[in-house]
Amino acid sequence: MSWWWAGAIGAAKATTNTPYFPFLFTYLLIIIINIFCICICIIVVQKKFEDDEPPRSFQSVGLVIGVTGIVGNSLAEILPLADTPGGPWKVYGVARRPRPSWNADHPIEYIQCDISDPNDTQSKLSALTDVTHIFYVSWTRRPTEAENCEVNGAMLRNVLQAVIPNAPNLRHVSLQTGGKHYLGPFELFGKIPPHEPPFTEDLPRLKAPNFYYTQEDILYEETQTKDGVSWSVHRPQVIFGFSPYSLMNMVGTLCVYAAICKHERVPLRFPGTKSAWEDYTTASDADLIAEQHIWAAVDAYARNEAFNCSNGDVFKWKHLWKVLAEQYGITEYGFDEGSERLKLSEMMRDKGPVWDEIVKENQLLPTKLEEVADWWFVDAMFGGAGLLDSMNKSKEHGFFGFRNSKNSFISWIDKTRAFKIVIVEKAEISDIPSIDKKKHQTCTPSDISWCEQILYAM
Question: Which residue range or ranges hold the PRISE-like Rossmann-fold domain (predicted)?
Fold first, then answer.
């Protein structure tokens, strides 16, 4: 069992103060003998099966719906690992578009399918009779929440009605929703009172349309049609992860914004409210969410439950904004105290040609600005106060996974760079015009209380 899963379930190896040096020679001798025996076995096995290698035997078969999304991409990477619980896993990955290059290295069977089309879904997914677990991490955006309920509900139902009757060994369906379960839909942000944080899973539904509620009802209904099929619901906060195809890609969008600011040699201004800048908030690492999906799929104590999923620490965006600026070598950054709130959906509206220049000059993966930047999502997330949830229920049921949010933020920036979606060079930019210091807040150690510094360093 690797370190990542041991950490996820809270396992810890006991340590003692017993000196090991007297036994060192014995240990080395045993290791040498084992290596010799293993080499002999490998030679014999290779000789015996070099012309007739048997097919690999799988214990579980996962179907990831939305495999090119921000969490689907993490599931596609983690599920096939040799020591993933419930494994070895065979993995089918479903997405609407052709398989992108940044997803191609994952050892999965890729299926291009439009799950909003019941005929296409039935034709392609009903044939997957060996599926044991469904991981549903897909959604689509429509202009109104009523349309979101209709379309996203139909997509989930199409998948479940294609797979459940035809997969005799199906054991579990996990559904990903999110923090809007406690806040309401995007169109009603600021118009209806959300629940008071920290959010817990037992809070009642808000009296407003919400496609998350629609999906949960469909999940309960469809899984009851087959004996022995359990379910779980996963509610992350703002996700830190990697997927140029995600509709809510916070890290990628901020990287694109920073790249444009650097290219145009302008300050990296925070596009949100003072509350979003100052308040404590939480985030959810995409790999952590994938781990929780897998845990719930294979642990009996997690069945038929809903779980929040966040990193387990808190942070302020004014702290991570400094991290983002440092990644791009931008020295002027922060929040404009007295100016009108900046909205990226307005500021970036005509920046397509600028992005084209950045892609060409840096030989990045060919993309259009609208493909890699979700301005509307950043505007929505930075439009209000910080969001806090509780991970107590997950821990009480046995999931102890966590992430350091600052490190998570940096690691996903690095991954976005590694796949040449953006370029990140930590070069100093000295000729950016200054912002009025009386109206501008930057994050320096003297501005941060000792308590905030401790939380930031976690």
Answer: 121-364
